């Protein structure tokens, strides 16, 4: 059955078109962003630009992220596909030391995107 691929391609294309116009942009100060199905969102992470959306796939959050180099837009972006169970989350470590966390909400009707600041700590000597 090949009918799913054109639908996914259309959804990805539509989401990327939306990202060019009416996106939710998360700059360096964002901490929590709530996404609805097929709603495009844009994130900055170190020297990368991330555009993504999710769909409800049989009660699971199917997240698609396009990750590109913010300083070299002519370099092709990478696509990352993640399936997240409701009540669970997926984390992506960024080069700047922060982590992007995508949590699937009940019934896969929303996802939250959160930037988690990573802080290195040295062991305490006594």
Structure characterization notes:
By secondary structure, the chain is mainly beta. It has a single domain, classed as Sandwich (Tick-borne Encephalitis virus Glycoprotein, domain 1). Helices cover 14% and strands 44% of the residues. It has one helix spanning 4-21, and strands spanning 24-26, 32-35, 41-45, 48-57, 60-69, 78-84, 89-93, 99-104, 111-116. A 5-stranded mixed β-sheet has the order 1-3-4-5-6, with helices on one face. A 4-stranded antiparallel β-sheet has the order 2-9-8-7, with no helix packed on it. Strand 8 (99-104) and strand 9 (111-116) form a beta hairpin. The longest helix has 18 residues, at 4-21. The termini are far apart.
Quick tags:
about 130 residues, mainly beta, Tick-borne Encephalitis virus Glycoprotein, domain 1, five-stranded mixed β-sheet, four-stranded antiparallel β-sheet, 9 strands, about 15% helix, about 45% strand, flat
């Amino acid at each position: 059955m090949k009918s799913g691929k054109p639908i996914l391609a259309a959804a990805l294309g539509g989401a990327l078109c939306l990202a060019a116009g009416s996106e939710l942009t998360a700059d360096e100060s964002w901490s929590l962003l709530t996404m609805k199905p097929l709603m495009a969102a844009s994130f900055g992470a170190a020297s990368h630009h991330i555009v993504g959306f999710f769909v409800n796939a049989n009660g699971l959050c199917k997240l698609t992220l396009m990750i590109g180099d913010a300083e070299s837009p002519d370099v092709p972006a990478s696509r990352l596909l993640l399936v997240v169970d409701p009540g669970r989350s997926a984390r992506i470590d960024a080069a700047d030391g922060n982590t992007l966390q995508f949590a699937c909400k009940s019934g896969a009707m929303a996802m939250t995107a959160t930037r988690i600041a990573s802080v290195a700590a040295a062991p305490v000597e006594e």
